[in-house]
Amino acid sequence: MPFQLNRRDFLASSTAITASSALTGCQVFSSQKLKLGFDNFSIRAMKLKAPAVLDFGAKHNVDAVLFSDLDVYESLEESYLKELRAKADELKIEIHAGTGSVCPTSKAFRKKHGTAEEHLRKAIKVSKLLGSPVVRCYLGSIQDRKTSGGLEPHMDATLEVCKSVEAEAKEASIKIAIENHAGDMTGRLLRELIEKAGADFVGATIDSGNATWTMESPYKNLELLAPYIASSGIRDSLVYNTKEGIKATWKAMGDGTVDWELYFAKWQKSCPEVPVFLETISGLSKTFPAPKDKEFWKDYQDINMNDYREFKTMTSKGNNKKITSKHKDLEKKVLFSPEYMEKELVKSLNYCKNTLKIGRNA
């Protein structure tokens, strides 16, 4: 059933939960704010190393930081990583750690850290030393949809890599948190991969923006992945109609089409202890032609048409927002500048703190 919780339903359910908890002594999730953080990828143009990223986080009173790549560290030596963990503990900042593609057949995979299995084992070791409960990683990107056999062979290869390090992940108490990344897997496909691998050691890094790049609404993506969410990458998306088709543009929080009050009401019920990591990549867009464009849609045979229609409904709000906000595409030199990245992240953090009331250190 599609996720269509409205405010009246949510308030009614919240009242019922509160009444029930008073009788049973259970904790009500809504009594505790969600944790707020950011992915270092949001400000990659600033070229900050991990200690400076933590200082940036402390300056903005975040609860957590996601180090989503191995290059953010000045060293992978045990002593360095333990010092970094001690610094985070002192600042009261929770660390989630991760890396890039661990799919050896993906166009996104890099051999810098050895084979896919060696790469993932290294990332698990780093995560353990940093006290991270997860190792965030991903399959690939939208380009993998265009290869022979589509995503299925890449999903099989990713599954094999995960199973090869199952023992190490379980011994370290680390969950492999695979992201729906850059237009590769929908929430449905990622859920399928997690369930095949084993949800006891594989989970999801849920990415609301990447959902729109598979023609999936963030609400549907959250509904599908809710039982398996272990980490996150969150940003807004402006979804609207153009002459070429439906366009999805990533935006700062509050500047897009997503109803975040509804989204985080569901989050609060499903995974209240998983930090909301902002991964602002503002300005990048994808345009999706109508289903009658057979050449384009041959790479999207996995798309559930009910999900597509739900995604399409986001344009009714997006069309109006595009007009009122005078939306325009910015040059890449602006989008990739350190000043713009910092501005978009800080704007998003403030929106989450002040409007959505997210963040325990806020």
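Second entry:
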Amino acid sequence: MVNMKNMVIVLIFTLLISAVMGCTNNKETKEDSEIYGSTYVNFQMPPGWELHPMPGKGTVIWMSGDPRIRVIELEDKQKFDSEYNKALNIDTDSYAVTKKNKTVDGTNVNILKTTNNMNGDIQDEYFFVKDNKHYHLVSWAFTGWNSANQTMYRKKINNATDIIIKTIK
């Protein structure tokens, strides 16, 4: 009987400690659900955009279906360099590629803007390092060959990525 009473006390004590630690220790990295399959990345949500669960790495946001942005924190410089080199070596027979560089709030950003030569859809990639963390933003929109949509979506993407880059932690 005494042994059972001690076990209950230890169990209650353990549960209380776990509850307190779980509620107060919010600085640790939290794993997303299996739907996301990655670690949360914290940034200010751009106006008009919303979080959207999608499989794969990163946090995905979108604006009424299109355009979309996947925000990925890469594990280290080696993975960052690998992803950047892969993006640089895209098949130029299948995609028109424009390379750009800009500075957002003191952060150097390398940009690869691609347009699919088959259907006109866009996919732009942003690579930057901030606070010793390596980030890769992949944006895309199903624009077809509608140049007005391409221009409009890229403008929305650029505005959103600027906010993300300025506020990401």
